[in-house]
Design brief:
The chain has about 350 residues and is an alpha/beta fold. It has 14 helices and twelve strands. Strand 10, helix 13 and strand 11 form a beta-alpha-beta unit. Strands 2-1-3-4-5 form a five-stranded parallel sheet, sandwiched between helices. A four-stranded mixed sheet has the order 6-7-8-9. It has a three-stranded mixed sheet with strand order 10-11-12. The longest helix has 28 residues.
Length: about 350
């Protein structure tokens, strides 16, 4: 067996090492939690946070977030959070910006430049060009006296006492605090814009909330020949054949104008069988359930789910504004669409 074929086994920790691993994990969380609490305490020491929010709210363009290394990774997340909560934003790598990507920035934009030291050469190199364009600059640094902080229109102080790294070298606490500052800014802007669940859903159509708030009955209902329907004078036997053909476990009963007057389901059939032994001459009007629940195509699919759950039914009829049958909905349709 070759070395590459051998299964690599994880190192087994002895009791002392296991205890140290756990202690360091707890200490890391404690250090980072303390740093966020410190950030919270000093957030109102000056007007920088409010000024940053006002600057972005007044922006006619987009928010451009930039940072190198770990600051860049955090910047990508901040840009994504802003974009998904109503503030158009994107991430721009400062190295690529110096080689053409700066063309994405306009005078109407706001640049959020992230550098813990405030001295990142890649950020400082593009700052003069950004300012010449007329874009405004918000700096996030841990050094208020740094060049980046002084060149910015607004400075957000993300200083930390120490990194959680035992060597006090790897960006840990500082990146956590930067991320928290970005979240705080995004949430403040979300509220200032009057951002609602429906707005969130528009930028998250593939998520659970998006499906709940953007999926309408017309998007998931059966229509046309797939909708089972018979007239009131139809025999029960013929109605059962319609139920079987369409595979919805029910059929609508409609009048001459196509308006539902009743519904007959598999459950109704079981109840008929319990009462009668011979139903060859029975018309569907004699055993149908009158005044069936219905929903409109333009209603949200979650509204149909609520009615189904309230009345413990698995199917619903869909009618237009004139109460004419235009579709049918089964609980399985909603499940497949991931509305529920």
């Amino acid at each position: 067996m070759s070395v590459t074929d051998e299964k690599i086994m994880p190192k087994s920790f002895d009791e002392t090492l296991a205890r140290r691993v756990l202690d360091l994990g707890r200490e890391t969380l404690s250090i980072e939690a303390d740093a966020i609490r410190a950030l919270q305490a000093r957030l109102g020491d000056d007007d920088s946070f409010v000024s940053a929010a006002q600057l972005i709210m007044a922006c006619d363009g987009r928010v451009v977030v930039s940072g190198m290394g770990k600051s860049g990774h955090i910047g990508r997340k901040i840009a994504a959070t802003l974009a998904s909560t109503g503030t158009p934003a994107f991430f721009m790598h400062p190295g690529e910006a110096a080689h053409g990507d700066l063309g994405m920035v306009t005078k109407n934009d706001v640049l959020i430049a992230i550098s813990n030291s405030g001295e990142s050469s890649e950020i400082l190199d593009i700052l003069p060009a950004v300012k010449r364009l007329g874009a405004r600059v918000i700096a996030m640094t841990g050094k208020p006296a740094s060049r980046l902080a002084k060149l910015a229109d607004v400075h957000l102080n993300i200083a930390v006492d120490k990194e959680a790294c035992p060597l006090n070298l790897a960006p840990t606490t500082s990146t956590t605090v930067t991320l928290a500052m970005g979240d705080a800014l995004a949430v403040a802007l979300l509220d200032a814009r009057g951002f609602r669940e429906q707005d969130f859903a528009l930028s998250h159509p593939g998520g659970a909330l998006g499906r709940r708030l953007l999926t309408h009955v017309r998007d998931v209902m059966r229509s046309g020949d797939a909708v089972p329907s018979v007239r009131p004078e139809t025999s029960l036997v013929e109605a059962l054949l319609e139920v079987t053909r369409k595979g919805l476990g029910m059929t609508a009963i409609v009048d001459a104008e196509g308006r539902p007057v009743g519904v007959f389901t598999d459950g109704d059939l079981r109840r008929v069988i319990e009462r009668m032994h011979d139903f060859s001459d029975i018309q569907i009007r004699d055993v149908m359930h009158a005044n069936p629940r219905r929903v409109r195509p333009e209603q949200l699919a979650v509204d149909a789910v609520a009615v189904m759950e309230e009345f413990r039914i698995n199917q619903m009829l869909v009618v237009d504004e004139d109460d004419r049958l235009v579709g049918a909905l089964h609980i399985h349709d909603l499940t497949r669409a991931k509305v529920i």
